[in-house]
Amino acid sequence: MNAPASSPLPDHAPETTLAVRKIIHVDMDAFFASVEQRDNPALRGLPVAVGGGHRGVVAAASYEARQFGVRSAMPSVTAKRRCPDLVFVKPRFDAYKAVSAQIRAIFADYTDLIEPLSLDEAYLDVSEDRHGLGSARAIAEAIRTRIRAETGLTASAGVSYCKFVAKLASDQNKPDGLCVIRPEQAQRYIASLPVGRFHGIGPKTAERLERLGIHTGADLQQLSLDELKGRFGSSGDWYWRIARGLDDRPVRSSRQAKSVSAERTFNEDYHAPEDLHRELERVAGLAWERISRARAEGHTVTLKVKYSDFQLISRAKSFVDPVADPATFAAAGHFLLNQLLPVPRGVRLLGLGLSNLIEVNDPVPRQLGLAI
Length: 372
Fold this sequence. Notes:
The chain is α+β, with helices and mostly antiparallel strands. It has helices at residues 31-39, 63-66, 76-82, 93-108, 136-151, 163-170, 186-191, 203-211, 217-221, 225-232, 235-243, 273-294, 326-338; strands at 23-28, 48-51, 58-61, 87-89, 114-118, 121-125, 155-160, 178-180, 259-270, 298-307, 312-318, 347-357. The protein is globular.
């Protein structure tokens, strides 16, 4: 991948990150759907959606389905409308976790500095060339080759000097692609992209930026730090930094999750308080199982409610001490639900989670000279 040919800014790498880290972002291609197509040959070549059903949402979509505009988190009825031949498959999380463990084992052969973002993507710091392959590009190629050979699946990878640019790069040549952005190419590359591609800028923020005439990284680069902070508060500092490829975040090998939660979409809308409290108790039990497995400790309990018209609201309650037991966790959820009763319309989804988690600090990688 060659960097774009023009940019309003000088073509140089940020001094704070030059020759410090060699980062790979690995992202599996349509992971859940690809596992289903691998394990069931009858699904290969078909538009497949994992999840869904009568009242659900799409958890993952195959590339065949994406050609029709089907995306994850899309309501099933919308997905089916866009792709009448869409095949819905029930999720098999045990299977996905097993494949994810295989992939994680491959990563671990190349570095101990692995920061999982989900079952299907992770950052790797490969500044130390454990196998003497000579460059971060070569390490990324070796990892992708082994993933295909050992799992039958494809992965895309982005290689760069920092996490932000590596994540942008992994999406550049999907599926089954590799993109390398060297430090001297970074600002031109960022300038060429729409702001909606930037990690940390969601759809609503992208819309707000576009209303201000900021459509690309080049547009964002023209704004001063004071201008961005004036318009976006503390987030303005992040936008200013990423527009210039400044990202000093290390790869954290024991990444602390921001929250742990569970939710359920119902087959019918619930109105009665007793029904809602009953279902919330079930959701609380599922969430606490995940909290226990993650050994998470947090101070804030958050209730999520989605109404029949898809309006989504959340309510939170924070504690001075970490929430220590499932009874306290569930009681906080019931307290928050009571504040919303009686509900103005039917409820189709309830979720409960624990956030404001206690962070674990990890060591910063060493500075080494491996080529990107």
